[in-house]
Amino acid sequence: MTRLTGIFTPNLVPFDANGHINESELRRMVDWLIEKGVSGLYPNGSTGEFMRLSFEERKRVIQIVAEENRGRVPILAGAAEANLDMILDVCRTYADLGCIAVSVTGPYYYKVSQESIEHFFRELAKRSPIDIVLYNIPQFSNEISVPVVTRLAVDCPRIVGIKDSSRDFPRFLNTLHAVKPQRPDFSCLIGCEEILFPSLLLGADGGTIASSGVVPEVIMKLHRESITGNIAQARRIQLKLLDLINAMLYGTNFPEGFRAGMSLRGFNLGTTRQLLSPREQTDLEEIRGKIACILTECGYSEAAGTCRVVPKTKNSTSAELNVEQIVLGVLKSLNK
Amino acid sequence: MTRLTGIFTPNLVPFDANGHINESELRRMVDWLIEKGVSGLYPNGSTGEFMRLSFEERKRVIQIVAEENRGRVPILAGAAEANLDMILDVCRTYADLGCIAVSVTGPYYYKVSQESIEHFFRELAKRSPIDIVLYNIPQFSNEISVPVVTRLAVDCPRIVGIKDSSRDFPRFLNTLHAVKPQRPDFSCLIGCEEILFPSLLLGADGGTIASSGVVPEVIMKLHRESITGNIAQARRIQLKLLDLINAMLYGTNFPEGFRAGMSLRGFNLGTTRQLLSPREQTDLEEIRGKIACILTECGYSEAAGTCRVVPKTKNSTSAELNVEQIVLGVLKSLNK
Amino acid sequence: MTRLTGIFTPNLVPFDANGHINESELRRMVDWLIEKGVSGLYPNGSTGEFMRLSFEERKRVIQIVAEENRGRVPILAGAAEANLDMILDVCRTYADLGCIAVSVTGPYYYKVSQESIEHFFRELAKRSPIDIVLYNIPQFSNEISVPVVTRLAVDCPRIVGIKDSSRDFPRFLNTLHAVKPQRPDFSCLIGCEEILFPSLLLGADGGTIASSGVVPEVIMKLHRESITGNIAQARRIQLKLLDLINAMLYGTNFPEGFRAGMSLRGFNLGTTRQLLSPREQTDLEEIRGKIACILTECGYSEAAGTCRVVPKTKNSTSAELNVEQIVLGVLKSLNK
Amino acid sequence: MTRLTGIFTPNLVPFDANGHINESELRRMVDWLIEKGVSGLYPNGSTGEFMRLSFEERKRVIQIVAEENRGRVPILAGAAEANLDMILDVCRTYADLGCIAVSVTGPYYYKVSQESIEHFFRELAKRSPIDIVLYNIPQFSNEISVPVVTRLAVDCPRIVGIKDSSRDFPRFLNTLHAVKPQRPDFSCLIGCEEILFPSLLLGADGGTIASSGVVPEVIMKLHRESITGNIAQARRIQLKLLDLINAMLYGTNFPEGFRAGMSLRGFNLGTTRQLLSPREQTDLEEIRGKIACILTECGYSEAAGTCRVVPKTKNSTSAELNVEQIVLGVLKSLNK
């Protein structure tokens, strides 16, 4: 049995008018997500913009989330600090706060050899007071190759899983195939929203899914259908979700689309730290409108006011627009 | 109903001692594949090294395959020639030979805009006497983006499908989601061996799978289990296949690993046109030995003589090595 | 002394109304270039769209160019055919036609190991009846790494030079530094217009420069100033040329910008084989207008009719627009 | 006149036995570099491993360097902090410490649009109390495109230069050509060792050159020969330097090779923060030996003890190994 299973929601960070962390809103978000039934929380991931926070702010985020959580769900805490000593520092803190594990990327900025990366994780595993999840996200930091993952999984009990955001499904399957037979309790989490269902079907233990911060009801439904083998339903939800995912992923800097989505669910995210030009802010309003429409179609009436285009009529015959039916079905079954 | 479904086997090209196409061996391969039950043949694909043949040789390959096939299975003929006129030339020939469709890549060598690529395919669709399959393989030629694929699918009846070898599963799902509701008969074929099962499960109509030229029994079994919803079995076969796929894909120039694999099934592939250094030839022998072992474990006794390492004993407990049981099961069920 | 020195002009291929090679216009272009003083001709390069011609057309291009040349300047003939036998076939033909050498890229389409590439060139060198120039253009085909180039230069007398279009100047300097001390007669040609002057200054023997097909007067002037150490003048011409180069390189598919440029010098290039969408054709007219203006400013009055924007007035103070003065100066000195 | 000219040496950071910044050694390095005649200092660059330091340590590095410098040479301080507020914080501090300017990369880790990057630098320019140098290093952080650089140079007096480490010489020339005519005092610094001489010759104001921390005598000599137009000598030194640069750049994680080089000049750099595997540490010893040999050949006798291979004899005829003569000549002329 792996200890990390199900859907871990990457926590977005709300900012107040002064650009500081909006603590009360962050607490409200934690409560809301737990109420909606997500399996765990994942603060200080890429979605949580850890790289745009200060060291102290990152620690503060974990503290707030852990306090508000009060042990209700497991917390996977992002710990990709600048060097081994700083990582060990936050490992101690996050262990004390009751987090279940920390997530650590390959080194970022500089290119580093696979051999150095392996050696680094071995040292970290030896000295860490808390379980470690390898975080593979080659778009932003050095890849952790499958052979390195495999050797670390076999040799280091402290390393308990991988979160793979590479969007490379053949790689993910190779990881499952290489690691699981030798260490069945090694948790393989997928970090790519578009392929959550097939990943679960092929043996993933769960996922870190940014859209579970926006539509936790749908993602948890998708998770449930996937693991209970309700193939047809899972397939339909996964494909329909692509509209929302694409709207949030593209057209603006990451993770602005997800921040827009969550704000449409009633949260005050504040202004991003990565400045947008005036024109890009206007574009973002368009994207917000588009996301609002998709959410409205999905039955999230709190987003309706912002929907910019005329919603499809009931008797629309266009096959690709009946997200509504599907996800309303999801919600109905949730209400039961 | 799409016209292109199931597993199309990319035909390897055998060469004789003079480096010419070994016609009799190619005919024997065609018969063997059809006997083994593959759904269709796919000559002049990347696996068929079309780019290392002359224009006349490419035409000859299709002629041989079509003749030997005698209408038994549909033929998808690679037609990625140097310019529109040459493509139309082979389209006429391949239509006359009874091929079901041609496959055309995005332009190769030069970088070309998506808009030019779309315009090119529209022109081709207008003038082609045979159905066209878009061939997306961004590793080797210009990508054909999902919006372009979608517009072509909606507007051009002559364009009947896509073969996607990008290894990008989120992209493939986005293609399915964007195209199928608007044109259900558009055939979406996956060209990535590692993800055949999840692709079929999510809605792929089939695949062009190079390893179906080496272990057609296993791939057809995997296909059957996938489309009949035998999830557990399909998952197991897919993951086990990774050993063989990795052995054939890596460690030597593509497609030498597949040529080695097929030679182990009793075919005389001859010497590759892309020269290997003496050291690389020695390495290839190692890889052959490895592939032979995997094939022997899978019950293909004709490969046994070349297997270089001691085969696992019956009571091996290593979870990752019991390919044998699984695939012997496959073969048993095939014998019935 | 290297045998390949100076500026080799990559020949564009004019097409007639039926899309065939326009032989008389190609002959006229050859004469014009030789009259303008280019050092050599380079047909069937990337600029010559060899990849969009048939095998027979490529041979025909070389035959026309060689015939029309009548031995006046050396011809470097592109010979990047599909496999070793086909390359050797054209090598014999081009040797018979009196070409000085052939240029061969690393393999295209497929990824191939450096070791295989080295072995391939060794084999080619052993068997070729004509001198070989390595053609490094990693944008479009497999790179030929500096260590491979160095070993080939040291070991193979038949390999007499490299044409490097990688746009990677540190790489080019490393090539010069690694090869020249061991084989001073190995010709290092730069294939990147923007850095012709610094390349010559650091030891390049010459270059294959597409814009020498459009403004041969300027490129030959730049070459002369560079090799005679007229640093200030060479620097000024090189920087001013960037406007023209950028206009021709960007905004449309390669090499349409260069075709537009040469058509503005009075040649009928015909329609490209790589189709442009209607919108892109309109865009190309804009680009033509821009190129025409730059050419007009440079004193090429034949382009004046197509110049779309109001030419700068004499007393314009903008430093970056006085291409005119500089290049008129160039032309004046040419007239002397 | 630009205010930033000449060679700015990127400061390496020495660590003590506890892994903390070795303050006394850093001070000794500052004095040594100034005595050797470098034009300025550049602490907290990529070579200075700013990304592996804590926020406080980065501030401490600048404080130490500024104190020890006592106004002798200009200091360009790396200020690529996590967000705008943190950058402005260090800008104030570094201004107070007397630094001449700060250097800021494009955002790292996340991909960010060019428009956002431009807007960010405009905001920074409005609010910064100290001059800003754009730091383009697309290998590690988002590129700052030439059009963005140009607009910022024209519109923002606070932005006084660019340091371009992209290794893309055509890009650097385009920057010079686009910016200098409109803003002649905008400082264009090259951050690529292999092309310092051609960059200076084409109009660069100087460079940030990591090897100037190892062989400041040679780099300052190269700079002098370049700007005084001693072409032949500059060319020879530049090409000979490639051996040393390649030895330091490749074969180990950046910037370990430079740390090895500087340790061979008599400084105690301590152990790197980016762990190396035991095998990589052994490899590094090999590289150290190689660097030592090159330095010994160059007349730096303090490195002799570590040189692993037999130094070439006086009457060696191998053209590529007489670095000695050239650089001894350099040193002799320095002694005069």
Sequence-ordered SSE layout with sheet pairings:
Four copies of one chain form a homotetramer.
Chain A: E1 6-10, H1 23-36, E2 40-42, H2 55-69, E3 76-78, H3 84-96, E4 101-105, H4 114-127, E5 132-136, H5 146-155, E6 159-164, H6 169-179, E7 187-190, H7 196-202, E8 206-208, H8 216-227, H9 231-249, H10 256-264, H11 278-297, H12 323-335
Parallel strand pairs in A: 1-2, 1-8, 3-4, 4-5, 5-6, 6-7, 7-8
Helix pairs in contact in A: 1-2, 5-6, 7-8, 8-9, 9-11, 10-11
Structural notes for this entry:
4 copies of one chain form a homotetramer. Chain A has 336 residues and is an alpha/beta fold. Chain A has 12 helices and 8 strands. In chain A, strands 2-1-8-7-6-5-4-3 form an 8-stranded parallel β-sheet. In chain A, strand 7, helix 7 (196-202) and strand 8 (206-208) form a beta-alpha-beta unit. In chain A, helix 5 (146-155) runs parallel beside helix 6, helix 7 runs parallel beside helix 8 (216-227) and helix 8 (216-227) runs antiparallel to helix 9. The longest helix of chain A has 20 residues, at 278-297. Chain A is globular, with a radius of gyration of 20 Å. The two termini of chain A are 30 Å apart. Chains in contact: A-B, A-D, B-C, C-D. At the B-C interface, helix 3, helix 4 and helix 11 of B face helix 3, helix 4 and helix 11 of C.
